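Please fill in the sequence for the structure shown.

STRUCTURE ENCODING:
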């Protein structure tokens, strides 16, 4: 079996297994919104979360910048936090985090879309893969 894996793939797997944070994310790569919130303190209230596909689409750009493509990971790390995320204000989790609902305020490309005095339900919780922003 080992001979069938290319040398580069084996080296990549070994390098990823040496980092605990990456290992934790690899053990459950498909986190639904309720699963992610259940793993956070206070059931995720106050956390910044986003759909993983937003970063893949290159939406982590400031509001004034054109969407010409994804920004390299190094530039995103220098810029700071993600530009598109939900700020969770309330959760209602069921069955130990397998199901549930969440409410929050949407920040899109650095600008808050949801008014500060209200919250809206976060849609697509079971449909998409979610991560911390």
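FILLED IN BY: designer on duty
SEQUENCE:
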């Amino acid at each position: 079996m080992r001979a069938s894996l290319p040398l580069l793939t084996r080296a990549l797997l070994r390098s990823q297994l040496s980092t605990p944070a990456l290992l934790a994310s690899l053990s459950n790569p498909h986190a639904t919104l309720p699963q992610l919130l259940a793993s956070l303190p206070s059931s995720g209230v106050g956390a910044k979360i986003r759909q993983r596909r937003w970063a893949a689409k290159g939406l982590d750009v400031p509001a004034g910048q054109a969407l010409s493509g994804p920004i390299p990971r190094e530039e995103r790390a220098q810029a700071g936090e993600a530009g598109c995320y939900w700020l969770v204000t309330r959760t209602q989790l069921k069955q130990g985090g397998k199901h549930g609902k969440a409410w929050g305020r949407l920040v899109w490309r650095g600008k808050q879309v949801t008014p500060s005095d209200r919250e809206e339900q976060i849609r697509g919780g079971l449909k998409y893969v979610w991560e911390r922003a």
